[in-house]
């Protein structure tokens, strides 16, 4: 039997164009997008995927018209409220990564509640990237890393001047990222035909396999998801070497 990727990350793109193609308001696309999200989350849990990370709202998305931002926040509220019991019942552990600085208090409270409620669940690890930006995450990690080194060694200068730099490495740095307790994604899927990663998991996707899928997110089905996994299973991962690491 083929091996599942351990961690799949998705950029759920194309809600607006899906709506535009039907002469509907963009919100209608986001609503349909939530339906697609629910179906993929349920399916991912059922097939035994360990980690699924979804890009739900970027640090740049605040620059959209206020009405659209309000609609997206409303949908997020609705999702967190209406899905909380179902996610918990399905043994899903929820995490939210991002700054939280700009989210409203009631949304932060819902997130805290659901993260606490689900923290001992052992099924799918579902991570929502909300008010998330990869560069922002890395800058935040640099600040936290420097503060931790300064606290251990007196100040950052003496920390950097030391001959022994064994605690200044990728592994240590990774502990300061929002994703410190998640493995790197094996597979990144972006829907809607756009071929870029738009500030998503910049550090973590160093060796991820990428699939750019033509469908808009509201049209993306569980069969499309399974086909992406099959595509991934047929790839060779070489991690910069000449040795191929078959994923199957
Ligand atoms: C991209 O479509 C999608 C988003 C900015 C938000 C993604 C949100 C959802 C799928 C719904 C909310 C999800 C949860 C978990 C509540 P776009 O608006 O950029 O589409 P476009 O590129 O066609 O304009």
Annotate the secondary structure layout.
Layout: E1 7-11, H1 15-21, H2 26-47, E2 51-58, H3 66-89, E3 93-97, H4 105-117, E4 125-132, H5 134-153, H6 156-161, H7 170-174, E5 187-190, E6 209-212, H8 222-233, E7 236-237, E8 245-246
Parallel strand pairs: 1-2, 1-5, 2-4, 3-4, 5-6
Antiparallel strand pairs: 7-8
Helix pairs in contact: 1-2, 2-3, 3-4
Bound molecules: farnesyl diphosphate.
**CATH architect. name:** 3-Layer(aba) Sandwich
Order of H and E elements: EHHEHEHEHHHEEHEE
What is the number of helices? 8
Mean pLDDT: 93
Ligands bound here?
farnesyl diphosphate
Number of distinct beta strands: 8
Low-confidence stretches: none
Q: Summarize the biggest pleated sheet.
A: 6 strands, parallel
Count of distinct structural domains? 1
Q: Quickly give the structural class.
A: alpha/beta
Strand content: 15-25%
- Categorize the overall geometry: globular
The termini sit apart by 8 Å
Strand order of the largest sheet: 3-4-2-1-5-6
| CATH fold field value | Undecaprenyl pyrophosphate synthetase
Please tell me about this protein's structure:
The chain starts with 6 loop residues before the first strand and ends with a strand. The longest helix has 24 residues, at 66-89. The strands form two sheets. It has a six-stranded parallel beta sheet, with helices on both faces. A two-stranded antiparallel ribbon has the order 7-8. The protein has a single domain, classed as Undecaprenyl pyrophosphate synthetase (3-Layer(aba) Sandwich). The protein has 248 residues and is α/β, with parallel strands linked by helices. The chain contains eight helices and eight strands, in the order βααβαβαβαααββαββ. A hairpin with a 7-residue loop joins β7 (236-237) and β8. Farnesyl diphosphate (FPP) binds at residues 12-17, 30, 33-34, 37, 54, 56, 61, 75-76, 79, 128, 192, 217. Farnesyl diphosphate is lined by residues 12-17, 30, 33-34, 37, 54, 56, 61, 75-76, 79, 128, 192, 217.
């Amino acid at each position: 039997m083929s091996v599942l990727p351990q961690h799949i990350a998705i950029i759920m793109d194309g809600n607006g164009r899906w709506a535009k193609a039907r002469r509907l308001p963009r919100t209608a696309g986001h609503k349909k997008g939530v339906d697609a999200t629910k179906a993929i989350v349920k399916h991912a849990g059922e097939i035994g995927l360990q980690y699924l990370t979804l890009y739900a709202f970027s640090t740049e998305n605040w620059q959209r018209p206020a009405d659209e931002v309000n609609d997206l926040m409303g949908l997020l509220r609705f999702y967190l409220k209406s899905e909380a019991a179902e996610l918990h019942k399905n043994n899903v552990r929820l995490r939210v990564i991002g700054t939280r600085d700009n989210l409203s208090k009631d949304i932060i409270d819902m997130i805290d509640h659901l993260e606490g409620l689900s923290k001992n669940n052992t099924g799918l690890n579902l991570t929502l990237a909300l008010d998330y930006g990869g560069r922002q995450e890395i800058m935040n990690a640099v600040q936290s890393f420097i503060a931790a080194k300064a606290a251990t060694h007196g100040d950052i200068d003496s920390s950097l001047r030391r001959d022994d730099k064994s605690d200044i490495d990728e592994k240590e740095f990774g502990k300061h990222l929002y994703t410190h307790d998640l493995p790197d994604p094996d597979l990144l899927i972006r829907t809607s035909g756009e071929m870029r990663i738009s500030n998503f998991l910049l550090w973590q996707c160093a060796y991820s396999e990428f699939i750019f899928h033509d469908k808009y997110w509201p049209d993306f089905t569980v069969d499309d998801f399974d086909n992406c996994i099959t595509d991934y299973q047929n790839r060779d991962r070489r991690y910069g070497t000449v040795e191929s690491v078959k994923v199957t």
